[in-house]
Amino acid sequence: MNTLTQAQKDNHASVNQRLGLAPDAHLTLSNQIKSIQQQKKNLVFSSDPLESDVPPIHVSVGSIAEFKKMVGVPDGNDDGHVTYPDPLADHHRQLMSAVGSKAELLSRMDDQLFDKMQKAAYAYVMGDSRKVQEYEPLINSLMFPGRIAVFTGEDLDIPSGETYTIKGEDPVVMNFEEITEGQNAEIMITTNCSLHTQYFTQK
């Protein structure tokens, strides 16, 4: 295990602080994870407590702007990895202006608008929110208020040959001081996930 500098410790703690977690939350969950690892292989980290091997910490989120603040990706960062949706089509703008309720909007929106909204929500949080500003009212009306699932700890060691899966309908935030993948181990992510670590080691 690597020794963290004070700056790295502060970086790790600042993520949990933005999420509103107790200062010792990562210590409590670290002990739980180590205990579970003694009993099971190929752990699942899910926002759904019924399918998660590790109990998630759920945090309420009021808006997409609040979610972005929690994740901590500022506007203006390198966003080459982010795919932004095309601007809203005129007929979609007209639809948003005409509907009077969330239920009506859901019943009238097409797959294209839904896909654009999902892409815009990811881009808002992980990229430059200013580039998808026109989607913000739509995202907030259909996706918020909501919740995220948080998993945090000191070190997460994935044993050789095992696969740890991150999944669930709600977004997941992983915040560990250090993550180590054993030989032929892997992390499989099937949901929107923000992963924070000070050291990531592959053996």
TrEMBL record:
Protein's recorded name: Uncharacterized protein
